[in-house]
């Protein structure tokens, strides 16, 4: 064994303690560190011939990199839809690395059983029928991909075709009906060879991002054959939900695969105040829900649920003598895009065990309350205006300026980031450039949004005044 490996093996406890100290220093400063920061390209160094050992590498990281990380797990990072990491999930994630299980197989550890158990918890949490089969993937994008891969196979089967074995050459183009699909849906369709242009946009309800179900019915009636419907359970701009009950009813008249992207909106099910938004979810053939957003576990983790396990197997089976017979095997590598898999169910299991239904109800309701509070503050402010009513945990707003441009928003948000207290990302809603505040972190309180408004106001004031010389 190389002497440095030998040394580090003997000093593993010291290395882990040093790591724990670095992490603890970060956690202790989560309330004050800048949530986002601009970092220019660094000068690239040569790969070392002779290593420095883990402790020196930790020192190097601490000295040169630690303070340039985003404090995206902190309470005032409102960009995208970003969760932090609960204490239980961080602990679990460290153990995932320590045990380094390859959670693909079923014959050497309890890991796949813990994954089954975790999926079972989630089915109860989200009100899903027992009939769903679920597995962990890396994120909602790959969950959408895994779902739409099954949808593609299923549409082929309705025509007597087997795309997984024969490919799609010569077959009629697939149609995907959707009103406000997340950008990962066209991306997934591109990866699947279905093509981004397969999406046929369905009208939304007036002033909403939710689908107009009557318009969907018309589009379905105009289809020649089976198609795919992608419904949103929580859009990223306004957390709008398609009417899943009404869409589900259309299944009695038309043949389609229903995929529901509930990446973060699925957590509506945690609270009686919002749970009705998820009514009808059991009509879905496949469902996407993220774990690294509102569940607040470390990246990267999401769940994929399907009612068609056998279709999933047809697409993802991984046949090789050394991997066993897919038909006989419950192994996840026959169901998910990955072959080798990180044991990403464990942080989810830990956090659900640690905080339970009650903990997540409190978290979801507190985040939504903070969003509504922020919405009220913005409504009463001089410089800002809401672009949509606050539905759950995202506030979509813009500068109160005639003809505000995307450039103006970019500039404004760069100044907000450089102030160092809050972080937002831009968007466009119905053609109007705006700002999103997505509140999905377990640490966030009302006071964080009050501070956010203060920062926004001070930056708006600064930009209004001509530069002082
Ligand atoms: C975030 C999000 C995605 C993509 O999720 P990743 O985990 O970043 O891949 C897809 N759909 C919706 C509705 C989302 O909010």
UniProtKB/TrEMBL annotation:
A Pfam family this chain is assigned to: Pyridoxal_deC
Q: Does the keyword Lyase apply?
A: yes
Kindly list the cofactors needed.
Answer: pyridoxal 5'-phosphate
SUPFAM superfamilies, per this entry? Answer: PLP-dependent transferases
Q: Which keywords has UniProt assigned to this entry? A: Aminotransferase, Decarboxylase, Lyase, Pyridoxal phosphate, Transferase
Q: What is an example of a GO molecular function annotated in this UniProt entry? A: transaminase activity
- InterPro entries per the UniProt record, alphabetical: Aromatic_deC, PyrdxlP-dep_de-COase, PyrdxlP-dep_Trfase, PyrdxlP-dep_Trfase_major, PyrdxlP-dep_Trfase_small, Pyridoxal-P_BS
Under the heading PROSITE patterns, the entry gives: DDC_GAD_HDC_YDC
Would I find Protein biosynthesis among this entry's keywords?
no
The similarity annotation says:
Belongs to the group II decarboxylase family.
Query: What name does the UniProt record give this protein?
Result: Aspartate aminotransferase family protein
In its UniProt entry, the species of origin is given as Chryseolinea lacunae
């Amino acid at each position: 064994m190389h002497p440095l490996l030998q040394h580090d093996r003997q000093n593993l406890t010291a290395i882990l303690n040093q790591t724990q100290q670095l992490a603890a220093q970060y956690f202790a400063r989560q309330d004050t560190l800048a949530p986002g920061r601009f970092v220019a390209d660094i000068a690239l160094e040569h790969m070392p011939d002779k290593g420095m050992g883990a402790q020196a590498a930790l020192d190097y990281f601490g000295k040169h990199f630690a303070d340039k990380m985003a404090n995206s797990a902190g309470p005032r990072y409102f960009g995208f839809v970003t969760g932090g990491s609960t204490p239980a999930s961080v602990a679990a994630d460290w153990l995932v690395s320590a045990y380094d299980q390859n959670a693909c197989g079923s014959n050497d550890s309890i890991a796949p059983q813990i994954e089954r158990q975790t999926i079972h918890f989630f089915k109860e949490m989200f009100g899903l029928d027992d009939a769903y089969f679920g597995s962990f993937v890396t994120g909602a994008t790959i969950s959408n991909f895994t779902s739409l891969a099954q949808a593609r196979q299923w549409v082929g089967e309705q025509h007597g075709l087997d795309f997984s074995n024969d490919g799609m050459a010569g077959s009629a183009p697939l149609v995907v009906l959707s009103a406000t699909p997340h950008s990962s849906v066209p991306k997934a369709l591109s990866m699947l060879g279905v093509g981004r242009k397969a999406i046929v946009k369905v009208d939304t309800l007036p002033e909403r991002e939710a689908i107009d179900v009557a318009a969907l019915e018309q589009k379905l009636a105009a289809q020649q054959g089976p198609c795919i419907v992608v419904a949103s359970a929580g859009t990223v701009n306004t957390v709008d939900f398609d009417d899943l009950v009404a869409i589900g009813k259309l299944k009695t008249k038309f043949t389609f695969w229903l995929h529901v992207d509930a990446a973060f909106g699925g957590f509506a099910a945690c609270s009686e105040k919002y749970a009705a938004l998820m009514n009808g979810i059991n009509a879905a053939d496949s469902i996407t829900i993220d774990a690294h957003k509102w569940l607040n576990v470390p990246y990267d983790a999401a769940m994929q649920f399907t009612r068609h396990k056998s279709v999933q197997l047809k697409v993802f089976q991984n046949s090789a003598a050394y991997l066993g017979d897919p038909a006989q095997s419950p192994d996840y590598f026959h169901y998910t895009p990955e072959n080798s898999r990180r044991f990403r169910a464990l942080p989810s299991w830990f956090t659900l065990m640690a905080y339970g239904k009650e903990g997540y109800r409190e978290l979801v309701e507190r985040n939504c309350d903070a969003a509504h509070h922020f919405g009220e503050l913005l409504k009463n402010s001089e410089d800002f205006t809401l672009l949509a009513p606050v539905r759950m945990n995202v506030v979509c707003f813009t500068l109160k300026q005639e003809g505000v441009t995307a450039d103006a928003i970019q500039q404004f948000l760069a100044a907000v980031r450089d102030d160092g207290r809050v972080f937002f990302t831009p968007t466009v809603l119905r053609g109007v450039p705006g700002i999103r505040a997505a509140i999905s972190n377990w640490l966030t309180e009302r006071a964080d949004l009050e501070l956010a408004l203060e920062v926004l106001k001070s930056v708006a004031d600064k930009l209004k005044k001509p530069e002082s010389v």
